[in-house]
Amino acid sequence: MAGKTKSNIKLAIAPIGWTNDDLPELGGEIPFEQCVSEMALAGFQGSEVGNKYPRDPKVLNKALGLRGLAICNAWFSSFLTTKPYKEVEADFIKHRDFLYAVGARVIGASEQGHSIQGLDKSVLDEKPVFTGAQWEKLCDGLNKLGKRASEKGMALTFHHHMGTGVQTAPEIDRLMENTDPALLGLLYDTGHLAFSGEDHLAVLDKWMPRIRHVHLKDIRGAVHKKAVKGKWPFLKAVKEGVFTVPGDGDIDFAPVFKALAKAKYAGWWVVEAEQDPARANPLEYAIKARAYIKEKAGI
């Protein structure tokens, strides 16, 4: 069963290492039951939601309960820059209510309006750049969605992501500076910051008071260099192995763990490393990540 951690930090792992939502061919043959069983076997307490997870809360809760797991969050695609707010809000409320029913109290949103993360375009050179009007729609919309989340006692967090309009440190700054801290937190993702060429520790330090969910994603420097030089699309980089679990790539997580501990961060740390399971056995890499966190963070 899942291992115990310090009381203020809970460890989860994302199913994207087993089956990939954006690339269904990666791990398409791996069933949901294998995924969650191996998460528990590797010593994790929680999971985010993948595309193979049952959508009936009773069914999902039973499967997780048998394995000592909890749902901590699930990705929400917002389209605040391209769709009417009311349409986005209706989708958000359905998502919120599902997550609440399965025990999660965090919602991770990523703005997918104009996103190129699934397109055959250079993820660094052709990413969208929002206009002033789009920034206003995004920030205003996120504040409103944050109010909807708070109705259920839930925290809305924003997931900066490669190939989107909020990818770089200055873009994260603009988003945080123009949204209400009481309504929107930051989902801090080491791998996306490193891929984008940002100083992930500087972002961590600057926005620590707003960080309410953490994704621990490592990066393989040699693959990243090829991705930059070759102007790769995001999904090509994923398939080629640009991401991996903490302890297997080039990011030193010790300073990350130290900073979070010093700030008395309370919440989930989620190992999230989208890889091809045929090349990186999910259970093996989950165990590797769990051992690394124990070694470096004492958890």
UniProtKB/TrEMBL annotation:
Top-level EC class as recorded in UniProt: lyase
EC number: 4.2.1.-
Domain Xylose isomerase-like TIM barrel stretches: 40-294
Alphabetized UniProt keyword annotations: Cobalt, Lyase, Manganese
Pfam families linked to this entry: AP_endonuc_2 (PF01261)
NCBIfam families: myo_inos_iolE
Protein name: Inosose dehydratase (2-keto-myo-inositol dehydratase)
Lineage: Bacteria, Pseudomonadati, Spirochaetota, Spirochaetia, Spirochaetales
